[in-house]
């Protein structure tokens, strides 16, 4: 996990290394950090208590480091959640692999909300390693967007969101600092498009109401069991690009079954932002959850 490899601390690979020639034979005993060998010689790292293997780091140290880093993030995520509530903002964290159609879905959603929910304030925080391409696409719809470039980082974190939110118009929509945060105004919508990555963003709370996993039908129906942490953390799975189904060998029922195996409570929607199929159901879900 990225908590251990260092991308969250600005010190990639910041672990004590030891070098020795592995050509000599030595037994590792029952160390759970080492890969488990099975009948076909497959390697299964992540079988130990920390669920990750890092050269030079014990399982106990990995667990302590993860607890420290995630604990610090969680405190800011909780503050974000309270801050959002004070401003009448409800946030959703869109997570997926690169190219799943998150930005296309967001652009279509913003345009559709202009009709379905006129006057609903919408803001977007975009996460990518580099460029402002996605934020530029969002701004072209008329919605405000802040781009976060993470550099070598593979996910957004709560401090990044706190800083980005302070730059959005939503930050001042319902509230001026110095006044009571409590209000009964209609909510505003904050969409956070995380860095394209089906592993690391799963464990990082940003202060959102829910994670929404976006999975395109071009990716393969086994993604939920290959990357279970992400789908276990999500409340909703949106299958995108369903207009391509006639041209693909993608088993929708099997994909849903895999997702429900990982997360029995996960909700599922099928959407094509290109043709509009499923967009009404997606907007219904969103607006009912905002209510």
Automatic annotation (TrEMBL):
Start and end residues of each CobW/HypB/UreG nucleotide-binding domain:
92-268
Annotated GO MF terms: GTP binding; GTPase activity; nickel cation binding; zinc ion binding
InterPro entries listed in its UniProt record: CobW/HypB/UreG_nucleotide-bd, Hyd_mat_HypB, P-loop_NTPase
| One biological process term in Gene Ontology | protein maturation
Instruction: Work out whether the entry's keyword set contains Nucleotide-binding.
Output: yes
Compositionally biased intervals (Basic residues): 17-27
Q: Which UniProt keywords apply?
A: GTP-binding, Hydrolase, Metal-binding, Nickel, Nucleotide-binding, Zinc
Biased composition of type Basic and acidic residues is found at 28-43
List every stretch annotated Disordered.
13-50
Q: Which family does it belong to?
A: Belongs to the SIMIBI class G3E GTPase family. HypB/HupM subfamily.
Protein name per its UniProtKB record: Hydrogenase maturation factor HypB
Taxonomy of origin reads: Bacteria, Pseudomonadati, Pseudomonadota, Betaproteobacteria, Burkholderiales
Which gene carries the instructions for this protein?
hypB
């Amino acid at each position: 996990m990225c908590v251990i490899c260092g991308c969250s601390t600005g010190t990639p690979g910041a672990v004590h290394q030891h070098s020795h020639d592995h050509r000599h034979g030595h037994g590792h005993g029952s160390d759970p950090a080492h890969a488990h060998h099975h009948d076909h010689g497959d390697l299964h790292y992540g079988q130990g208590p920390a669920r990750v293997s890092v050269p030079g780091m014990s399982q106990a140290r990995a667990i302590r480091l993860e607890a420290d880093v995630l604990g610090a993030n969680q405190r800011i995520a909780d503050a974000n959640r309270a801050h959002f509530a004070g401003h009448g903002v409800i946030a959703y964290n869109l997570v997926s692999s690169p190219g799943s159609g998150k930005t296309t879905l967001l652009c279509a959603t913003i345009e559709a909300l202009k009709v379905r929910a006129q006057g609903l304030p919408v803001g977007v925080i975009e996460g990518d390693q580099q460029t402002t391409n996605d934020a530029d696409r969002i701004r072209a719809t008329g919605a405000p967007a802040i781009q976060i470039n993470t550099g070598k980082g593979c996910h957004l974190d709560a401090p990044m969101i706190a800083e980005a939110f302070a730059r959005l118009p939503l930050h001042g929509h319902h509230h001026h600092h110095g006044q009571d945060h409590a209000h009964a105004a209609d909510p505003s919508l904050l969409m956070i498009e995380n860095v394209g990555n089906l592993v690391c963003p799963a464990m990082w709370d940003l202060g959102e109401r829910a994670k929404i996993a976006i999975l395109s039908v071009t990716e393969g129906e086994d993604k939920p069991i290959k990357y279970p942490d992400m789908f276990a953390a999500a409340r909703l799975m949106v299958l995108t690009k369903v207009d391509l189904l006639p041209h693909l060998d993608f088993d929708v029922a099997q994909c849903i079954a895999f997702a429900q195996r990982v997360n029995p409570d996960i909700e599922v929607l099928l959407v094509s932002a290109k043709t509009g199929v499923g967009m009404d159901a997606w907007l219904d879900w969103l607006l009912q959850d905002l209510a």
